[in-house]
């Protein structure tokens, strides 16, 4: 069985975010750690299809949450006027 693996940069591009943002999600445990291969001092993360889908869903949820917060804030400001 052949499985497709993606780099962090490819997953970030597919999610529409930066590579560092995606890594921060991993470091903060919002996304589980993916397969890491170390070559000398360099670390490479390899993301499976399942990891890609998990990241896409999480980023979409964070975007929706941010949009809802922004709209709620705008409604209160306009109501105060």
Describe this structure in words.
The structure is a single chain. The chain is of the alpha+beta class. The chain has one domain (8-80). 60% of the residues lie in helices and 12% in strands. It contains 3 helices and 2 strands. Strands 1-2 form a two-stranded antiparallel ribbon. Helix 1 packs across helix 2. The protein is globular and about 45 Å long. Residues 74-79 have low confidence and may be disordered.
Cα-to-Cα separation, first versus last residue = 62 Å
Strand neighbour order, sheet with most strands? 1-2
Q: Count of DSSP helices?
A: 3
Query: Residue-averaged pLDDT, rounded?
Result: 85
Ranges with pLDDT <50 over ≥5 residues? Answer: 74-79
Amount of helix:
55-70%
- Described by the principal axes of the CA atoms, the overall outline is globular
Total domains, how many?
Answer: 1
Taking Cα atoms only, what radius of gyration do you get, to the nearest Å?
Answer: 17 Å
The tally of strands reads: 2
Residue fraction in strands: 5-15%
Major pleated sheet: 2 strands, antiparallel
Q: Pairing-aware structural class of the strands and helices? A: alpha+beta
Order of helices and strands: HHEEH
């Amino acid at each position: 069985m052949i499985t497709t693996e993606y780099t962090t940069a490819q997953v970030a591009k597919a999610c529409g975010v930066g590579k560092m943002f995606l890594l921060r999600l991993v470091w903060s445990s919002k996304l589980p750690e993916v397969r890491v291969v170390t070559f000398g001092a360099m670390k490479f993360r390899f993301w499976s299809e399942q990891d890609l889908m998990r990241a896409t869903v999480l980023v979409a949820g964070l975007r929706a949450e941010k949009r809802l917060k922004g709209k709620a804030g705008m409604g209160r400001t306009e109501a105060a006027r």
